[in-house]
């Protein structure tokens, strides 16, 4: 499966949760598949989805699901020790690991070679790291939500993108409606 | 009262409950003070752009954030300031150690000091420079201003403000 197929499958699970979604095509895909006020789309700032989600999870009690990518996490590797030492039980970092920089033309990342993101997360202090294959994402995500433990979920899948429109929504509107969903 | 306690009192009085820090020798005392306060959640960052991401999330989660960092970090946070904090219009007080100014003993620090105000000006970030300890009297107003206008705001604090680098 490719990322968009996974997102389509887990959209009913994501719909009721606060979601922070990675920059570029992942946000475009989620926006096209199931736009919700409870989705925070990143329009810029490569790498910071996991950090934004962590700050959000620490500031309020609702479950936060971060949809991140292998390339994005590699950009901001310092996030893993911060997560490992601070993440509360309502934090789920789902890394769609397709071994490539999808938004820029599917150039390979190092996770498609020798680098093991799950191993790096464990070494950084993340206690609950789960690795699943694309077809098992839904049940694994539901288990993480029900578990109430900080989770790093690495989803191994194929490289590739769906053709979706660019998000034209104003960033302040994205942020404002998201904050209303947080408070609701 | 110590300058560190005074600064953190102002943070608390302005409802700031979430503080991320990347250390600098000049900031050691204020970071210790932040860590001591029960009313503040202190989360050290590994890099300042990561810290700004944490602050953005905390703000959307209903907590007033602040970041404490060195001015060299302006060099690594320009994209984050422009495309996250400013683009989504979020408030972010940045208490910044202004290395490379008067009483600086490390020559390399001057290399970023000479760019600091120009970069902040280029980004249209309101910038205040604390050079004497009495300048701290403006901090409370600066924090109120930051949350009023929902912008990142820089408070540059040089070695003279802190009583001299290494000879405090």
CATH superfamily of chain A, by name, is Thiamin diphosphate (ThDP)-binding fold, Pyr/PP domains
N→C terminal distance of chain A: 34 Å
Number of DSSP helical runs of chain A: 8
Tell me what the CATH architecture of chain A is: 3-Layer(aba) Sandwich
Largest interface: A-B, 35 and 32 residues
List keywords for this structure.
heterodimer; A: alpha/beta; Rossmann fold; two-stranded antiparallel sheet; 8 helices; 8 strands; B: alpha/beta; 6-stranded parallel β-sheet; 6 helices; globular; sulfopyruvate decarboxylase activity (chain B); decarboxylase (chain B); TPP_dependent_decarboxylase (chain B); Thiamin_PyroP_enz_TPP-bd_dom (chain B); THDP-binding (chain B)
Structure description:
The complex is a heterodimer of chains A (184) and B (168). Chain A is an alpha/beta fold and 184 residues long. Chain A has one domain (3-183): 3-Layer(aba) Sandwich (Rossmann fold), CATH 3.40.50. Chain A contains eight helices and eight strands. In chain A, strands 2-1-3-4-8-7 form a six-stranded parallel beta sheet, with helices on both faces. Chain A has a two-stranded antiparallel ribbon with strand order 5-6. In chain A, α2 (25-34) links the parallel β1 (18-21) and β2. In chain A, α1 packs across α2. Chain B is α/β, with parallel strands linked by helices and 168 residues long. Chain B has a single domain, classed as 3-Layer(aba) Sandwich (Rossmann fold). Chain B is 43% helix and 21% strand. Chain B is built from six helices and six strands. The model of chain B has no long low-confidence stretch (mean pLDDT 96). At the A-B interface, α3, α5 and α8 of A face β2, α3 and α4 of B.
